[in-house]
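Predicting holo structure, adenosine-5'-triphosphate bound.
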Amino acid sequence: MESETASTPVGDSTGITATGAHHNQPVVERLWQGPLRHLDAARFGTLGSLVLVLVIESIVFGVINPRFATGSNMQVIGYEVSFNVILAVGTTAALVSNTLDISFAAVAGLSGVLTAVLATHDGVPMVLAIVIAMAVCILVGLINGIVSVFVGVPPFIVTLAMLFIVYGIQLELTNGNVIPVSSQLFYRVVAGYLGPVPLPVIYALVVVVAGAYWLRRTVSGAHVFEIGSNEEAAYVFGVRVPRVRLGVLMLQGLLAGIVGVMFTAELSSATPALGSTRLLTVIAAVVLGGTSLFGGEGSVIGSVVGVLFLGTLQDGLVLIGINPNLEYLVTGLFLMLAVIAQFLRKGKKAFG
Amino acid sequence: MNDTAFSATEIVKHYGEIEALRGVSVSGVYGQIMGIVGDNGAGKSTFCRILSGAEGPTSGSVEIGGTKMTTFNPREAASAGVGTIYQNIPLALHSSVSDNIFMGQEIVKRPMFFGIHRMDRRLMAVKAKDALAAVGVDVDPRRQARALSGGQRQAVAVARMVLFQQRVVVMDEPTAALSVDNRKRVYDAVHGLASSGACVLMVGHNLPEILAIAHRVVIFRQGRIVADVDAGQASEHQLLQLMSGVKPQEMAR
Ligand SMILES: Nc1ncnc2c1ncn2[C@@H]1O[C@H](COP(=O)(O)OP(=O)(O)OP(=O)(O)O)[C@@H](O)[C@H]1O
Ligand SMILES: [Mg+2]
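Done. Tokens:
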């Protein structure tokens, strides 16, 4: 049984950290005993290797095509990944709580379309359009939550239905057309630049810091992990499970809404199905970053690395002249490796 | 004098057609360990879940420490002093030991906004360490719970009860999957809880062990309590008869 293997101190993790500490400077030792002591080394291994692959990947791209390492290409990548990073923060929280929401990319599209449609009405100020779009996205999350938490339908199914509903609404609102948004101010504030840095990058950083802080340091963040790990125990121990679950899905809605507005600003227009291709990329990035498909484990930082990895890959393949269609193949292979690693870790527990 | 820890009156619980409980009335006293035995499906777990607020009864009432339960949720039961330990759902294994001990009742540093509170993990670890020591377990509270043995996990759950001074502790088969050593550890912790004044209800299938640890044994059969005996007076054989409802002469044949 599990208890046999588990009684040895923290499994393989301390083994790695301890040897690391022996051969290295006291600083490293202090880091391991200090801020890094919470790191499960197995997860750290996954994340560490992903960072390593990311670095190697970047070096290879940079050597083959020096344009990869230029500031303007960094801006392109930064722009591109910041949207996915924001979506990934919500997806991380959802997966950690053992909820798979597949409607978020469609919700982002809805938010963009709503903002554009409302803003082109006379007399509706842009700010009001954005606020309404956000409110609708949070409402969508709330409905996802109510149906899955109180009716008990698995979130995957609920959000699948919601994906269609939301997409249908977008088609109805736009008639399938592109809705232009002409406000220069809107573009500059939401999708412009601060010096050389694209604003979306800064917004994404804020979301990442807030999201990581919330998940790691706060009571409700701890509850997200505990619910994902053992929902029944959390409930009998007095955690307000429904509230947390609703909160996670509403947060996912809000973040998707923010991204939708950013899309619209970036393109100065909205189209139906805006950003819908990001659904699978974001989920893949989060899983690559070490968030467990079984709930209870995961980190915002890991997801950010996952998004950076896939974003860099996409950009770099184009730059070095490889057929960009290969991006899917490569993403798939890495994802396959990552989930096999996850399952092997589980398996070791079950059969060890 | 009022040393009634809990009292359940005419508890009935139906699951659709199934009558899991058919009118259970029983009360417990502070400082007492009450063993609960009965055949599979007799309704023991159902009774435990109702007492700990995980479910509401179809009819009947529950009082904990003089407070009548109204909403039947775990928070209500916990604030009236009920703590629960289940064999099959002990802990959130990916979270730390101290997060588990404080789950649902975390120590917060400062409230932020929208009801978001920063946890004081340092203080939680210190207090968790003390509570663990009180039940005789020496583990680092910052460890992940899944690194603990089955017995240690149960002990962590008991430490919760100690820390929050839960006066009514409901344990549904806490030792079912444990080795002899680990069972002993849990029993020691249960003794500690009872001698500090808690009323402990313990469901178990190991009759000799139940007889050894409990002061009193309540026997469930088909959704009813069919007997309530003094553990010092009863024998394993008697309990078996009461559980199965078979008369002594039939048993002998
Ligand atoms: N959630 C439920 N839905 C439907 N029926 C249930 C549910 N929980 C329990 N029952 C039924 O209620 C009856 C009592 O079950 P309970 O789990 O309380 O028995 P028990 O005494 O704990 O048995 P065991 O010794 O096997 O743990 C059984 O017939 C069971 O099938
Ligand atoms: Mg049972």
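Residues 53 and 72 of chain B are 4 Å apart (CA to CA).
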